[in-house]
Protein 1
Amino acid sequence: MAGPLYRQIADALRRKIDSGQLAPGDQLPTEDELMETYQASRNTVRGAIKQLTIRGVVNTLHGKGTFVTERVDPLVTTLTTDPKTGRGGGEGTVYTAEAAASGRNATARSLTVEIQKAPRRVANALHIPEGSDVISRNQERLVDDRPWSLQTSFYPRTLASRAPQLQEPEDFQEGTVGYLRKCGIEQAGYRDTIGVRRPNRTETAFFDLPDDGRIPVIEIFRIAFDQHENRVRLTITVYRADRNRFIVNVGNVPAIESLLSAEDGNGD
């Protein structure tokens, strides 16, 4: 038996995808076009799309249409810093260097700098009173022109007396950590908390995620400490989960380049 019509339509579209007639990133015909092609009702066509969506073959983006799922090689980011070379950490110039090492091009959109009142979550992380002034530095980061991560760093505004350029909407050539070091604020360490959650509306739009929340985001909550154990920075970085992998080094391990070359992409 041929089976229900929605399944026949799903199978026909899957054959077009498998044969390359519909390539990764291509948009599927509209519901109206599929209804006409297969002489089917709208509910039947939607049932076929649902079957393909469940299998991860296509994604429907609100207001844009349904697209063949793209096969993206995850970017590997080393979250820990190598004490010998200073490399790793996944931020600033290190982020672009790691992308380049894997043959990718990392860029960032214009930096947004604001003075904000610290919400409870930020205040608790920085050990300052809720509602205190903080400097917020927000940036959208891309790899190969694809939206890759959203990063916002918060600093107690009191740091501006020692590091005034934190309030300027410009990147630091030496990186923020390097700039703070020049100002006598040495980053002695940091603590990462990593979580996985459903994306909010802003993240769904930026990452071009399906509205059903099927693809989660990874949030890394980093608190940085200076040489006196003061909390000087909170950085919240959000990544699209299916496009990123992370390395955490503990103890005496091979160089970062060796680790990256050993990654086989299986995600085990």
Protein 2
Amino acid sequence: MGLPVVHFEISSAAAPELRAFYAAAFGWKIDVDGDGYADIHTDGTCPGTGFPGIDGGIAPDREDFVTVYVQVPDVAAALADVERLGGTTIVPPTAAGNVELALFADPRGNRIGLVRAAPLA
């Protein structure tokens, strides 16, 4: 069985504009925190398949990009596998709130996140 995509993040210097766009386009509930990061709640299930929707975020950033996060049991081990297969670390394993995450670029430069399956104690 493969590892699931559990979160997505849209990053942009135009974060306020994108928050309004996605709320209007898809009816997503968007909550902004004090740092300008917005939590996205999709509250959805795919009709016909029953696949659950995933939640995400909109982050203020100088660059425009989208990142999907894959849930892994061990961030450092997954990152080592990624590097062995030709990926490049962007952000090494890092505690972020109550989770551990890392970012890498795949061999074509696409940004992908890794997040540990269990929250940090």
Protein 3
Amino acid sequence: MHLVLESRTTKEVVVVKCRGRIVTSGEEARFLQSEVARLTELTKNMVLDFAEVTYLDSGGLGTLVRMLGVLRAARGDLKLCQVPPFVVRILEVTHLSSVFQPYASEQDAIEAFSTRPPSPHETFEASRNRIVCLDSSLDLLAYLRVLLQRSGYDVFTTQYPSDAMTFVMGATASIVICGPGMRTNQSAIERFRQSTPNVRLLHLPEDFSMSEADRSGPDLVNQVRSLLASPK
């Protein structure tokens, strides 16, 4: 594992210095998630110092998005500081800069907790089309939800094909995005395809979570736009 975490608590805020990679191909993302859960048992406010982070893949970004949602649901927040240029680029191209709002220094991030944290829905743009995302990974679903919502879509995520079908039938979704975790459930996907022939299915590649987030995210959004623009 190539991720080292050093933590301390100050002013009711947990500060964690991250050194190394945050990826889903190994144990790094799960290690970060478990440490955040442990460290935030007493306070739900956390700062991640990214000064020494060397790599962040799409799955790792999904882990951050999910942690953010969990902490905000518990009336806390997650802030990033000393973010290296390549992570800044990832946040910019995936439209997540305003969601995470990275800070220049640890002190700036800590002081920002004195203001009211936004709810998970306040930063999302008005939706135009409905999209269903289906996969077994909660981290990937969290990432897809925020990525697509920030691009202007109404998004429903689920781990269960039956729930996806219910939403499609009731909410007239335009696209269903199937993650790599659904490849082992091809019979359910085929039943879904037969029951909803007018809905477009978009299958994510097997290595989507391990791909470079500054490319895979924008590429997916472009694919969605192309599908919506093309005639059925």
